[in-house]
Write a structure and sequence with these properties.
This protein is of the alpha+beta class and about 450 residues long. It is about 25% helix and about 30% strand. The radius of gyration is 24 Å and the shape is globular. The protein binds S-adenosyl-L-homocysteine. S-adenosyl-L-homocysteine binds next to helix 6 and strand 17.
Length: about 450
């Protein structure tokens, strides 16, 4: 197909950046043609070189800055952008928070929901070293086992020891495990030839408890020198209370396989959130930014406006974090989640916290919602916290049929949020009050928010 683009590959030109995309790329328009440019901020005048041309858009890189934005942070390490660990590191934190608020507001405006307003993003005082979980690939480079992160859009490993947005204790643990793997000469996975052993290392550390879990993701059922390795890991890292082997023998980009075995300690670590205790197993979802999660959940709970008399549904409940926090203020809570291990954790967590007014189901949220509706469950409030792809239309229909007064929508993806809010509006709901973004992922373009929908 012949390109109709007004620019061609390798061409150099001067542009002014007009916007920042939801991926954190600078946008420049040439006629109506969009060029996406890494490391470029709104208002900046730059000389660019076109690197890729598609039919209606292209990519370019900055060759020279003629002016720079007052929001630009200059003291940065560019590996964090190259790896996608911190693609917004070059934007000041205040501007990041405004960017996230603006993102949501623009999307609602574009969807012709002009009366929806968005509050300023709730940020962090220290927006680095916040992640309680790391998942890093392990590869051989020049015969030596390395841990780090992939260069964006590739599987080239860039060795890293400081991950910038992770709990530094996790960074230290990764280095220790790396050194022990080297010492025992356990080979890293070789993707190209589908050989070798260790594919990834996952580390989770309780923010309050300081309990640490190390998950070794292996292509083999048993790693060479496994017993000695495990022994040395827990000797070297006193916080480790759980070492887990996850076997993934498939040729796939999916990180974890289906077999998980505890090699040392317990299969879970514990942490607290909102004064509740949670057991978290290797394959369960747990919010990565504990400090902000408490703010996010508190917001969701406040907005639910519970008096102790309500029936509440928590869809996409994971290990029951929101469900249990709600249970303290409601009559009955129903939770649903697709990962069986997470529901096992959720049930243990209900017991741990002496909460008996919660029922958990393993199911697809959309199917369970239909089932609850058929069974005549009458929720006063429904909380949803779906993954990035948002809600299934059938879930919205079943939810609306149960006629809750309120739906509290915790979203990690503004575009699916807007789509779903539209569907709720068609079912007789309207947005109640401003949307509240909470920055769960500083230095990245991810936008988390809480929206309340009220039955008209
Ligand atoms: N509310 C929880 C989890 C939110 S993350 C917390 O804050 O900790 C989204 C969760 O939805 C994950 O646990 C994921 O396993 C689950 N999930 C994904 N698709 C699902 C589906 N179709 N039905 C139910 N749960 C699903």
């Amino acid at each position: 197909m012949k390109s109709t683009a007004p620019v061609s590959k390798n061409q150099q030109l001067d542009v002014t950046i007009s916007d920042l995309t939801y991926q954190g790329l600078g946008l420049a328009k040439v006629d109506d043609f969009s060029l996406f440019i890494e490391n470029a901020l709104p208002g900046e005048e730059v000389t660019i070189q076109v690197t890729k041309v598609q039919k209606s858009y292209g990519f370019a890189r900055v060759v020279a800055f003629k002016t720079t934005s007052p929001d630009r942070v200059t003291d940065i390490d560019k590996t964090y952008r190259q790896t996608g660990i911190a693609p917004l590191q070059h934007l000041s934190y205040d501007a990041q928070l405004k960017f996230k608020q603006h993102q949501l507001a623009e999307l609602f405006k574009k969807a012709h929901m002009d009366d929806v307003t968005v509050d300023p993003t709730l940020g962090m005082a220290n927006p680095t070293q916040y992640r309680n979980k790391a998942q890093v690939p392990v590869r051989m480079i020049k015969g030596q086992l390395e841990t780090g992160f992939y260069r964006q859009h590739s599987h080239d490993l860039i060795p890293l020891t400081d991950f910038y947005i992770q709990d530094p204790e996790i960074d230290k643990a990764i280095i220790k495990v790396r050194d022990l793997l080297r010492q025992f000469e356990i080979p890293a996975y070789d993707e190209i030839n589908d050989k070798g052993v260790v594919r990834n290392i996952m580390v989770r550390r309780g923010y309050y408890s300081h309990e640490m879990m190390i998950v070794l993701i292996s292509r083999q059922q048993k790693m060479p020198s496994q017993a000695q390795l495990v022994e040395e890991i827990h000797k070297a890292l006193p916080e480790v209370t759980s070492i887990v082997l996850n076997v993934n023998a498939k040729r796939t980009n999916v990180i974890m396989g289906n077999v998980t075995r505890t090699l040392y300690g317990k299969p879970t670590i514990e942490d607290t959130l909102m004064g509740l205790t949670f057991a978290i197993s290797a394959r369960s979802f747990y919010q990565v930014n504990p400090q902000q999660t408490e703010k996010l959940y508190q917001m969701a709970i406040d907005k639910a406006g519970l008096t102790g008399e309500e029936t509440v549904i928590d869809a996409y409940c994971g290990i029951g974090t929101i469900s249990l926090a709600l249970a303290k203020h409601a009559k009955q809570v129903y939770g649903v989640e697709i990962v069986p291990e997470a529901i096992e954790d959720a049930k243990v967590n209900a017991q741990k916290n002496h909460l008996t007014n919660v029922t958990f189901a393993v199911n697809k949220a959309e199917d369970q919602m239909a089932k609850w509706q058929e069974d005549g469950v009458k929720p006063d409030v429904i909380v949803v916290d779906p993954p990035r792809k948002g809600l299934a239309p059938s879930l919205i229909e079943s939810a609306a049929k149960m006629a809750p007064q309120k739906v509290v929508y915790v979203s990690c993806n503004p575009s699916t949020l807007v789509r779903d809010v539209k569907l709720f509006e068609e079912q007789g709901y309207e947005v109640d009050g401003p949307i509240q973004p909470v920055d769960q992922f500083p230095q990245t373009p991810h936008v988390e928010s809480v929206t309340v929908l009220k039955r008209k």
